[in-house]
Amino acid sequence: MFINLSDVFLSAGRPLEVTCPIEMTEVQNGYETFSIIEKSDVKLTGTHKMRGKAHITGEAYVVVDMVCDRCLKPLPVRIDLSFERDVFSPEVDAGDETEDNLDIMQGYQLNVENLIFNEILMNWPMKVLCKADCKGICKMCGKDLNFGECGCDTFVPDPRMAVIKDIFNANKEV
Ligand SMILES: [Zn+2]
Ligand SMILES: [Zn+2]
């Protein structure tokens, strides 16, 4: 979806208010593609700041089909988007923001999909857990440890303990 900001760039007036759908059905994050299983419309407001410069604010949310980092259980994760940024018309020098601006502006048109895509990536959760104390899966047998122990011997001796044990054994031999 593209929104024409010509009027907003030109002069101060009533802010432009638009509600439009999010069209994308998946998000590609690095090498992985995630389905969007639910999404809101985007509520956007464009306010004139000066000739050729507008201030955009917006809100939306998407629910992305992820998996728990530890147990790999499918997990719908809601990402709330609430953003504001300046955009520039083609005849204005955007300075430091030129690159960002080119990403979401095509001429006088705001590229809503690109804007939303960027916002989703910026708000991507660092960690995805089905619950804070998810026990994950056993590295030996693959059992989901949230459903009980599997009985595998996953004991890894602490090297510091091994030293103490050596000393203990040495003393015993005397
Ligand atoms: Zn989990
Ligand atoms: Zn196991």
Task: Write structural notes for this entry.
The protein folds into 2 domains: 2-122; 135-174, no CATH class. Helix content is 22%, strand content 37%. It contains 4 helices and 9 strands, in the order βαββββββαββαα. The strands form 2 sheets. Strands 2, 3, 4, 5, 6 and 7 form a 6-stranded antiparallel sheet that branches. It is elongated. Bound molecules: zinc ion (ZN) (2 copies). The site of one zinc ion has 7 residues, from loops. Residues 138, 140-141, 143, 150, 152 line the site of one zinc ion.
Summarize the structure.
By secondary structure, the chain is an alpha+beta fold. It has helices spanning 6-10, 98-104, 112-122, 159-173; strands spanning 2-4, 16-20, 26-29, 32-39, 42-50, 53-67, 74-88, 105-106, 109-111. The chain has two domains: 2-122; 135-174, no CATH class.
Question: What are the main properties of this structure?
Answer:
174 residues, alpha+beta, 3-stranded antiparallel sheet, 4 helices, 37% strand, binds zinc ion
Binned, the helix content reads 10-25%
Largest sheet: 6 strands, antiparallel
What number of structural domains do the residues give? 2
Q: Tally of extended strands?
A: 9
Q: Which strand-content bin applies to the residues?
A: 35-45%
User: In angstroms, what is the radius of gyration?
Assistant: 26 Å
Order of helices and strands: EHEEEEEEHEEHH
Main structural class: alpha+beta
Bound molecules: zinc ion
Distance between the termini: 83 Å
User: Any low-confidence stretches, pLDDT <50, length ≥5?
Assistant: none
